[in-house]
Amino acid sequence: MSQPTQAQLNIAALAGPSPRTMRTLRKIQSHQILSSNPSVVSGPTSRLSTARSSANAEELAQQAQLDSPVRLRHRRARSNSDAGSGERPILQTQKRSGRKTGSGFGIKRSVLETLLRDGPQNGDVEDALKELRYLVLSTRVEADGDGMSTYRVYLWLTLLDIPPLPTDEYLSLIHRGRSPAYTKIRNDTFRTLATDPLFKRRVTEASLIRLLNATAWKIHDVKAKKRPKSRLSTSRRREMELSINTPPSIAEEEPTATPSSEAITSESAIYVQGMNVLCAPFLYVARSEVEAFALFHYFITRECPGYIRGAMDGVHRGLRLVDRCLEIVEPKLAAYLFSKGMQAELYAFPSVLTLCACTPPLPEVLHLWDFLFAYGPHLNILCIVAQLIRMRDTILESPSPNKILRSFPPLDAKEIIALTVLIVRKIPDALYAELIDHAK
């Protein structure tokens, strides 16, 4: 697949492309950035050893492309559940003090946090987003030993372009009581990251149930609107007959689907097993259930609707892509696994469905998600390939690799991201296009 030229991107911007088109362009452009530039992954002074010369932050920022005119957000002192009126944009020209609010005097913020809080100096959102994505790749989000960060949730909201959600909207879903998927949800929530003490200490099962149940109601309502009618009543037939004489100008005024429901169809499930693990990091990071709900609902309905549609066809496409990408990047390892009957369907299903959230430790999952949200969740497929490559020698030496692949080694986000950046450069354009679209 040929890459879009700058002229094509400019024409597309003038034509006013749809949000989905812009997301796809952004992911293709992320491929160009990652495949054509060795990126900083371990700190300001450490770079990947590659055949190509290193590109500095300014060069990489110039090549990054904007996916949509999103607004950067302030880190508020209170959580999103405290006010439903939204949050102020970060587009301000004045500079703020360099110390952290509530963190003591004289403590300097990181460049990433400063950009997220204070915004672009000249009000240029496009350049700020380019720099923001690069900073995510080149520096880790500051967090404590538990993986907690004061600004990570706002970084995710910004990178995914999620608008503020009124608290009352979430509460109205909660107050509707049990959804049709409630029993399935209760059968899963108590097992969510059950062996992770960090998660158990911060997130209660009750909050998991509320969030998943609210999401189920939200998807249920959208499905009900899109479900075709099998039989029409006499009064409905009469209405349709009368509509023949309706002026075209009136017919054109019918409301269109909201952006949050475009990817949901009548075939979508309101809940599938594994969604409990996928929503766990959102609840862990967010400062309120409203923020977590906004992130989780957006993610499953916009970024990976194929994962909850039909027989989870998006997940199965992702598993086949794991095999194909591994065959290109590490043909010897792929051939050995195939000779043992070990396709990705047998060992990588949880990793694809949950974006590796099923593999501890949780703080490393959060760092990995920072990268995925900055450059595209489709890169999770290549992150799984990177984990297999790190296990290469152990797998090749084992007569029964299925025992090794029953559980992946603990995540090391820094090493996986570094390896993924190298893998991107080896993936053909046509195959990369399939990566981008596999979850749609």
TrEMBL record:
GO CC term (a single one): mitotic spindle pole body
Cited Pfam families: RabGAP-TBC
Entry GO MF terms: GTPase activator activity
Sequence segments annotated as region (Disordered): 35-105, 228-257
Transmembrane segments: none
Residue ranges of every copy of the Rab-GAP TBC domain listed in the record: 146-376
Signal peptide start-end: none
SMART domains: TBC
Biased composition (Low complexity): 57-66
Domain of life, per lineage: Eukaryota
Gene Ontology biological-process entries: negative regulation of septation initiation signaling
SUPFAM superfamilies on file: Ypt/Rab-GAP domain of gyp1p
Name of the protein in question: Rab-GAP TBC domain-containing protein
